[in-house]
Structures are given as structure tokens and as C-alpha cells.
Amino acid sequence: MMGRSRQNLGRVLGRRAVLGGMVSAVAGTALANAPVRSLRPVARSGPIDPATHIAPEVMLLDAALSGTVAFMLADAETGEVLEANAEQIAQPPASVAKAVTALYALDQLGAEHRFETQVIATGGFADGVCLGDLVLVGSGDPTLDTDAMESVARDLKAVGLREVRGEFQIYEDALPYVATIDAQQPDYLGYSPSVSGLNLNFNRVHFEWRRAGADYSVTMDARSEKHRPDVAMARMRVERRETPVYAYSDGGHFDQWSVARSALGNAGARWLPVRKPGLYAADVLRTFARAQGIALGTASVTRARPEGAVLARFLSGTMTEQMRGMLKFSTNLTAEAAGLAASQRTGAIDGLSASASLMNRWCKAELGIDATFVDHSGLGDQSRISAEQMVAALVRVGPNGNLRPILKDIDMTDEDRKRIGDHPVQVAAKTGTLNFVSALAGYIRAVDGRMLAFAFFAADVERRAAISRSDREDPSGARSYNRRAKRLQQRLLQRWGALYTVDV
Predict the structure, then answer these.
(1) Is residue 440 part of a domain?
(2) Residues of the domain holding 147
(3) Which of 4, 118, 234, 362 has a CB 3.0–4.6 Å from the CB of 205, allowing a cystine?
(4) Could you give phi then psi for residue 135, rounded to 5 degrees?
(5) Are residues 288 and 388 in the same domain?
(6) 234 and 195 share a domain?
(7) If 0-12 CB within 10 Å is exposed, 13-18 middle and 19+ buried, where does residue 419 land?
């Protein structure tokens, strides 16, 4: 189903030649030996830097990265290994995990799969009156946004809805509820929100503050490019304290936040995670329905999937479109919702760990790799995959498979991190970044068109483990580490794309 048979994958891994030549110790890891293919000088067309001839062991020494730096480069068609270092050491993949999740979701759900959000009238609908309850029903759409909720409200008006005799309810159990993607992250970080069958705006709420005399005015809204509806289910208090900057508590039917007054300047804004995503979506729909002359009460939660007349519906983009967006913008919520939905196809699951375990089994059966993922986004730093395993998966899928067209194009940059225009080396890959973890994996089109597959994982897991939970947003030394890792990635990519051409 995925381009290459399992039998062929065995040949791919088996083709690796015994690498002879020197073995060096670099940054505490064993360097792979000389490339199995001969290096052939190529004609210089475009901005090919002569520095691409620098040996990888020299690049590694220059990068001075602590921990382990692992990489592998192979022919994307044959699996022939060209260069490698510490390639069998399993490393945290960070958001490179999303490339595997994309393959998993596309396989289990299908490229044309769309999530459908519905508004259902139970108990009958006649003469503009919902005789029973009106239920907002989610199917797990990770890309549902405020503009979609406004569209749903207009559709309710268009079908003639005037009155709801029963309750306004939400159904969000199409996916298991996850309070936060990674419990090791600080509560206030927007990239670790909750996940459920009803998600809105990637489950983030916009907090904005302005100094008003001796006090502050604050707003919590579900803004989009077109709308800025205030929400009641997320509330903020400004408190006189030094730390913590943000604190969260469960208010029952709302998210209660507080912020340290000492941390606020004259004005500012940031996105905070939503912990009650179903109520968040209902809050926004109620606001837009009111604008259409439809009064909805405070939403309650139903655990039973409702039956009745569908008064309005909203369809997401296709799974291919969703996965392309996820890989481009690295949205954790999209990865987790898509992964959970894919796992639901095999039966009921109770959370991210169980869902990730199913994806691990799928990886072994379909990609022939024995990786360990603890979630679908790569945010959890206990996930592990080696460069060898990642490259094996990329070769298995192949450069003409369904992954490469949806990967992000990676610009070639110079030593000052400025983009090099019209660079003859083309890279489509997924990036991954955590504190003291930097990853990149995908495909390279070399200067002569040869297709290569590669994976790069740099991680200092001990240094990362020493970071306190409260300091995980921006710990000392992390930016420098990741900046040097990205510079090394660029040097390797440009070397590989310039030197590994088809032999005469």
C-alpha cells in the first residue's frame, strides 16, 4: 500500500555496505566511516559553496553540540547508505514525529477523509422550533475555527431556526478527552492544549491586556481574521504577585486564569491553552447565534451521541490538506486529533498513550521500523526513533509516495542564516525543535536530480531533563544549542545535495 513491499524493505536495510576506513570519536559519538559511494566532482551551477567539500566529522567538531548527533543519508530509491553517524541511537524526534503521524492518518483515514461538525435537533424540528435539544456535535476536526462557527450560525438562521425548546448541548466524545498534550509543559503554553472531539482555534484563547489608569483592562476572545467574539468560559484575574506569571485553576464550567501584575507592561497579548474545548466552541457558537436572532442557553455536556435532524454542518478540508498544513505549521493539536482519529478506526482508545501504542504497531507492520512514540506530535520527549529507522521509513514510502508532496520546502541558508535564492539543492522535510533537541528529516533533490532520503537528530537529553518545569519555555542555553544544530543541518544538506550525484 505504501509504495514498497515489506520484502523490499528488508533488501533496503540489507543493502547497507560494511563501511570501511577511518573511525573517529566526535562529541562523544562514533563517526560513521567513509561513504560507500565515491564522491564525484560536479559542475558548479548556481550558488554551490566550496565548503560543501568539508568532511562531516569536521562539521561535527565545529558545531560543538553536546549529547548525541545522529544522521543518515541514503539513496531514496535503493536505500543504499551514503553517510551516517550514530544512526542506530534512538533519539527524541520532536516534531519530525508528525511526518510519521501524517502517514498513519492518511493510511487509516484516507486522503479524502473530512471531519464533519454538525448541529443536530433532537425531538423534532418544525416551524422554526427545535422541539428537543440542540446539540453541537464534533467529530474531532482539529482545524475548526471561529469563522466556521459564524458560518454554522448563519446556516441555522437559513434553515429557519427561531427557538430551542430543550437544552443547548455539546457532544465531544468522538475522540477521548486529553487535558494537555504533554503534562511536563507549563500550564500556560499554547502549544500544549487539550484535545477532544470538539476543538476550536487549535484550542487556544487570546488574552490581551492594556493599562487603564492604575489598573488593567483584559479581554479573553476567540479571534480570527474576521471576528473577535469574547468568551465567558475563559476568565482572567490580574493579581499582585511576582510568581508564577500565569496560574490556572479549574472553574468547573470555565477556565480560570490569573496573571502576575508585575509581569505586565503597558499592553500585550498572548495565546493561552483551552482546557474545556467543547464549552469553548459552544460559547462562540452561542455568540454568533445570538447575532442571528437565535437564543441559546448555557451549554451542557451530553455523553450520548445524539440522533435527530441535522440543521447545519461544517466540513473540514481533506486529510491530505490537513496534513500538509500540519507539516508546514507544525500544529500539535492537528497531529494529536488526526492520530487519535486514526487509532479510533481500530477500536476504542482511552488517550494519547494508547493511541501512540497503536501507531507504534502500525509503524512496525507497515514501515518495518520499531520506533517508540508516546504521542502523535512529538511534544513528549520520551518518544524515540533512530536516524536509521527514520530513513528506512522514508525509503519505504519513496520520494514519489504520498509524503514528499506535503512536506515543507526547506530554504538553503548561508552562514548568517540568510536565504540563498535559486539554490540548486531542493529539500522537502519536517523540522523538529524542543529545548536541546533539533531534528530534520525528509528528501533531498541533488543538483543533478538524484533523490536522497535523510534524517538528522541532535539531542542532549540529560541537559533537557535537568530543566525545571517552570523554565521550559526558554531555558538558558537552549536557543544557542538549537541555532548551532540548525547551522550544522544546513551544512550537511548542502554537502549532500552537491556531492552525492549519480555516478558516471
Answers:
(1) yes
(2) 115-316
(3) 234
(4) -120, 125
(5) no
(6) yes
(7) exposed
**Per the domain annotation, does 330 fall within a domain?**
no
Q: What is the pLDDT of residues 16-64, one digit of tens each?
A: 332 222 222 233 333 333 333 333 334 344 455 656 678 999 999 999 9
The answer on 392 and 273 residing in a single domain is: no
Q: Contact at 8 Å (CB) between 178 and 352?
A: yes
pLDDT at 443 over 90: yes
Which of 257, 217, 209 minimizes the C-alpha distance to 233? 257
Q: How far apart are CA 111 and CA 203, in angstroms?
A: 24
Point out which residues pair with 237 in neighbouring strands: 258
Written as nine digits, the cell of 372 is 517508540
Identify whether residues 400 and 295 lie together within a single domain: no
Domain limit, last residue, from 316, 350, 368: 316
Is there a domain that residue 158 lies in?
A: yes
Inform me whether the pLDDT recorded for 482 exceeds 60.
yes
**Residue 335 pLDDT level (bands cut at 50, 70, 90):** very high
Q: For the chain, what is the domain count?
A: 2
CA angle at 466 for the pair 465 and 467, rounded to the nearest 5°: 95
